[in-house]
Amino acid sequence: MRRQAAATRGAENLEPLLATKEIVIFCGSGGVGKTSMAAAAALEAAVRLGGRVLVLTIDPARRLASALGLEGGLGNVERRVPDDVLKQAGIEPRGELWAAMLDTKQGWDDLVLRHAPNEETAMRILDNRLYHNITARFVQSHDYIAMERLFDVHATGKYDLIVIDTPPTRNAIDFLEAPKRMAEFFGGRLLRWLTMPYRMGRGRGARVINVASRPFYQLADRILGSQFLQDIAEFFLNFQSMYDGFVERAHAVERLMHDRRTTFAVVTTLEAAPLREAEFFMEELVSRKYHLGALILNQTLPAYLRSPEGARVADALVADPTPAAGALVELGIPALSEPDRTARVLHTVGESFRNFAVVATREAELRAELAEAPDVVVDVPRFEGDIHDLAGLAEAGRHLFGESSGNHR
Ligand SMILES: Nc1ncnc2c1ncn2[C@@H]1O[C@H](COP(=O)(O)OP(=O)(O)O)[C@@H](O)[C@H]1O
Ligand SMILES: [Mg+2]
């Protein structure tokens, strides 16, 4: 069973937060590690907290998808990562890890099937030539479907914890607004305007377009062809039949995002641009009364770069590398046999350590400045290679949860 944690505030790992929440939304700018961190957090939660944990990924790299058993276009189907696959990676979870990949097209189809007044209308919408085009182009289509899907999965009550990745939007705020935009879009003026000639002309013969005397429609008719406009109109008229369902649903999705069982984890690197975006995003979350649970600083420099002992070694190498070079020459390793060259390399090593130490110190300062808003701040260092398999996720997971009480290794 899942443990209940006391206060999460001030914790340096995600464990207490994930033990007390049902939904964690991972967000941040593109490329900072949202997908990797979400998967790592879910895996580690399954390992340490137990229960049924689902990671809903959006755009995992191919190898990561296949490590989670999600290759081959599974649509929105959730798959359990088999215990023996985890075991092979040295992982023995107390609970179950499940994974699914968001399929936006499937998500829209499901929505239409759910909200259309009858099957015939649903089929007319799904078969409309414009349907796919418009839903794919609807700004924040991805964002909305991701949240919608989250709502759906949460409502099944099947999972103790759902960790959701977010789409690579230009602006992380976009998806907070997606449900509202969705409601606006389907109830809005644009729709009414586009469908007006058809609503006016309904039942008065095939060339309903003639009813609209406005220049726009005449022009559009000439340029795009009346079939095109008719497709649009039919599409929107059918879509309007789902309006109430859609809007109600969008509001429910919005409420779930604000629910006390839901929290946000903002992921960022310490580079200037993503960091600025993360700070802005955290402010927005707080001012819009979402729960800002965690800030994850990904790809940070390792802490040993800031140790005084390390600095002393670097200082000694920079001040006079000769004794150390002499000692290395003594070892009789062919590549190190030339004292001057070895000394120069050691000098450079010492200098570059110092340079890294400066950056690491700056990172630590930034971290301290950032630590105020969220309940939890966690660092994950940059690893040698990509995070593309279960072992890589487990390693990142250990950093997210801290070293204590792990069940793997
Ligand atoms: N701490 C890390 N160390 C090394 N590579 C990382 C780390 N975090 C993420 N990556 C790699 O960076 C790339 C982008 O990560 P990803 O999780 O896909 O970001 P996002 O979902 O935010 O776009 C991936 O190749 C991933 O393996
Ligand atoms: Mg991603």
List the helices and strands and how they pair.
Elements: H1 15-20, E1 23-27, H2 34-48, E2 52-57, H3 62-67, E3 79-80, H4 83-88, E4 96-101, H5 104-115, H6 119-127, H7 129-137, H8 141-156, E5 161-164, H9 174-187, H10 189-201, H11 215-224, H12 226-240, H13 243-258, E6 262-268, H14 272-287, E7 292-300, H15 308-319, H16 322-330, H17 339-370, E8 376-381, H18 390-401
Parallel strand pairs: 1-5, 1-6, 2-4, 2-5, 6-7, 7-8
Antiparallel strand pairs: 3-4
Adenosine-5'-diphosphate (ADP) binds near residues 31, 61, 299, 382 and 386.
Describe this structure in words.
With 409 residues, the chain is α/β, with parallel strands linked by helices. The protein folds into two domains: 15-116 and 125-176 and 251-301 and 382-401, P-loop containing nucleotide triphosphate hydrolases (Rossmann fold), CATH 3.40.50.300; 305-367. 56% of the residues lie in helices and 11% in strands. It is built from 18 helices and eight strands. It has helices spanning 15-20, 34-48, 62-67, 83-88, 104-115, 119-127, 129-137, 141-156, 174-187, 189-201, 215-224, 226-240, 243-258, 272-287, 308-319, 322-330, 339-370, 390-401; strands at residues 23-27, 52-57, 79-80, 96-101, 161-164, 262-268, 292-300, 376-381. It has an eight-stranded mixed β-sheet, with helices on both faces. Helix 11 (215-224) packs across helix 12. The radius of gyration is 27 Å and the shape is elongated. Mean pLDDT is 84; it is low at 1-6, 201-212 and 405-409. Magnesium ion (MG) binds next to helix 2. Residues 34-35, 58-59, 165, 168 line the site of magnesium ion.
